[in-house]
Amino acid sequence: MTNISVREAVDVTEPSLIEGFPGVGLVGKIAADHLVEEFDMTHHANVHCDSLPKVAVYRDGDAELQPPVRIYADADRDLLVLQSDVPVGPEAASELTTCLTGWYDDRSVRPVYLSGIPEGKDESPPALYGVGVGAGVEAVVDAGIDAPSEAGLVSGPTGVLLSDAVESGRTAVGLVVESDPQFPDPEAARVVIKNGIEPLAGVDVPIDHLVERAEQIRDAKERLAKRMQNAGDESTQARPIGMYQ
């Protein structure tokens, strides 16, 4: 059984939703966590799913236990964030998709899905690409985000959500950023936020805190990153595909 239970009502109108499942470079996870913290977003709802790991999450300085997948909201910015503290396998992703997409439709949610593509590190900033379904294609163009430079696919829970959007024709945007394949990548998350989320969601996101704490963030999330390297289909990631494979 899958359901979304409202914890605290927040009035949003046609909000953008930023998805933050763990994946390559933990890009979505880092970006989602930063948005929730920087905007002091309201813990709006909890996502329950039989296929999700049966764990309870606690926070530094907070005695209240929480489920591992939650939705946060900011009424002033008309913004939602889907935050996940656990890897999500294919079975759970399929259940979540059924639940989430119905919830999206009821609230006119415009989802923005995030994925890293493994890339060796160099001195240049990570490249960011945008893809879309329906009106999401125009949104990517209007935001000035480059189209992919090569053919590829998105897997893991984000791939399941994007696949459902393609099948149903539901509007969606996907952001793919070059990311460190082995370690948490706050720099890739910074690029996603400034060059992708800001123009798509119409928000201004302070990133000084993210840049200053890059090393601390990398260290704090390295254990999860190592788990994700061995997670297979549980890891959100984009990867190139050969034209003649």
From TrEMBL:
Keyword check for Coiled coil: yes
Coiled coil: 207-234
Record Pfam families: PAC2
Keyword annotations from UniProtKB, A to Z: Coiled coil
PANTHER family tied to this protein: 3-ISOPROPYLMALATE DEHYDRATASE, 3-ISOPROPYLMALATE DEHYDRATASE-RELATED
Protein's name in the database: 3-isopropylmalate dehydratase
Organism this protein belongs to: Halobellus salinus
